[in-house]
UniProtKB/TrEMBL annotation:
This is Pep3/Vps18 beta-propeller domain-containing protein. Pfam families: Pep3_Vps18. InterPro entries: Pep3/Vps18_beta-prop (IPR007810). Residues 73-187 form the Pep3/Vps18 beta-propeller domain.
Amino acid sequence: MMGFLHSIQRSGSVVNSLTNLQVCNNYLVGATSKNTLIRTSTVPPYNISDYVYNYLVLAYVNNLYWETLVDLIYDLNHHFHLYLEIEISRLSDDRVHNIFLDPMGWHTVISMQSGTNFYINKGMKKVRPLNKTKDHLFDSIAWNHHNVNELSTQEILIGTNDGLIFETMLMFNEDSFFSSGTIEQYWIQAR
């Protein structure tokens, strides 16, 4: 399988090859080769505690295991109560460079190979561009572990492939977004 999920027909939609995957706090977020974000939430007692990328061996708190990602996607209707496919980008020549999921599973940052970056939180139905971050490829994010806000990341650090570190706070509130037009509350180079 070489770490990718081959297309599987599911309820009239096609789950494309996964290129990136993150799991945190019972949330699974994956990016596909067709620039689609897949987001799922597990139902207890199937709490995901860890995974291995090549075959996605999921370890659950009740010591049950799924050995392949194919089994996971195939059985989504039986084991998950939330499954969303969200378009990231319509540019066919652009691909996902990296995805990041905060420890609570609320906030997702998507970095594209073109240097365009996106944000989505668990309450949003589509990704929003991070306008101040243009032309930066994100390689790491240091999340704020004290954050208890589903609408804001609070202060976070973002590391780029150029060795730069930026501090920012990402927040989506429909009222403030439409007045300011930006997700980033600020964008400061720390190093």
